[in-house]
Amino acid sequence: MDSLHQDGPALTPAATEPSRMMDVVRDLYPICRSITGEGLRATLRYIADRVPMEIVEVPSGTPIFDWTVPDEWTLREAYIADMAGNRLVDVRRHSLHILQYSVPVDRVVPRAELAKHVHTLPDQPDLIPYRTAYFARTWGFCLSHRQWESMRDAEYRVVVDSDIAPGAVSYGELLVRGRSEAEYLISAHSCHPSLANDNLSSAAVGIELARHLLDLAEAGLLNRSYRFLFAPGMIGALTWLARNESHLGRVRGGLTLSCLGDAGPHHFKRTKAGGSTVDKAVAIAFRDAGAPVTMLPFTPFGYDERQYNSPGINLPVGCLMRSPNGTFAEYHTSADNPDFLSEAALQGSLDRLKEIVAILDADARYVRTDGRGEPQLGRRGLYRQISGQAAGGGSLQDSMMWVLNLADGDHSLIDMAERSGKPFAELLRAATLAREADLIRAAADA
Hints:
By secondary structure, this protein is an alpha/beta fold. Helices cover 31% and strands 22% of the residues. The chain has 13 helices and 19 strands. Strand 14, helix 7 and strand 15 form a beta-alpha-beta unit.
C-alpha cells in the first residue's frame, strides 16, 4: 500500500449500488485502521464524502461508564528487516502485519526473542492473522507461518515507529429525520484494518442504506427517523452511548451490521429480550422475500449489539450478517480481502435491509371506529375492490379480515403479519383501504 492512512478516491455517483459498494470495500481496504488514529479518521472522512455524516472527536481520558476513552495510537511505519537491511515484513505491504497498538521499538533482536512477538496461523500457513493488543503495552508482528518458517537468521532488526498518547476516539453519526422523533439505530463498526467482510462490507452496505433513506426523507416518505453510527468496535459504541443517555428513550431498537458480503446465507442474532419489533420485522422481511435466514439467540459477545443490549441500556438491537463472525475460514485473516466478497451478496444484503426498514417504517397500531362486530364491507365499496379472489393464498380479503379483527390498539401491523402469515405489504394495503373507509384509525405510534 502506498500510504498507511490515505483517503480513497472520489465518489462516482453514476455507478450502480452493487458497484459502488464494491468500490467502497476496495478503496478502504488498504487503510491501516484501528480504534483510534488517522486510519480511522481517513475512513470516516471517506464515508462523510458519501453521506452527510458528522465526525465526532471525544478526548482520551473521557469517562464512558466503567471505561475511559483510550489514548490514541499513531503508527508511522513498522517492519522486520534482515541484517543486510532487506525489509522482509512491512506494514506498508499489508496493514495486518502489525499487532494493533504496538508500542515503539527499534533494535536488533535474536530470532528466539522475536518469536515471542510473532503471530502466525500454523493451520493456515499462507495467511496473515489479525491480532490486537489495545490495552496491553507490547509490540508484535503478524505474518504467514510459511514466511516465518523461512526466516532462519540468527537475528533481525525490528522497527515500530509509533506513539500511544492522549488524543481522541472518532466516530461518525448521521440522523436521517422522518416525521417522527422515534428512531432506529443502524450501527457498523469501522475500525478493522484490511478486513473486507468483517468490517468494510457493513460500511459499504450502511452507506447505501443511508443514501436510500435520505432520498425517502427528501421526498417526504419517511415516517420514523434513522440514526447511523460508523464507529470503532466496542469503544465507539460505549462512547456514543455514554454521550447520549438522555436521548436513548427515543431509540425503538436497531441493527448492527457485519459480514454482509460473503456467499453464505443470512443470519440474524436476536435482541436480548427476544420478540422485539426488530426481531419480528427481520423474520417477516425474509419470509416475505422468500429468502432464507437463520435466527440466532442473543449472546453477550460478538459485535456492538452486546453494548446496546447491556444492563442499564437495554436497547433492542440485533445483528444482521451473512456468515457469522468466527464461522468462516477467512475470518480475521488476509484471506478476508475484496475478492472474498461479491456484488451480488452485497446487493442481497442491502435489499433485505431496505425491506426490514420499510416494515419498521410502515408499522402502526389501529383501533376500530365503527363499533362492535364485523363491519359490512360491501356498502363501503371495499368488497367490490377485493372480490373474486380465493380465500387464503395471500388474498387481500383475508388480510382485510385480519386487520379489522386485530385493530384493537394492541396489535401492530408487524404483529398481524407474524400471527397471520400474510405478507406485510398486503396487510398494509388492507389497512390503508380500511382507514380510507373510516373503519379504523391510527392508535399511538407503534
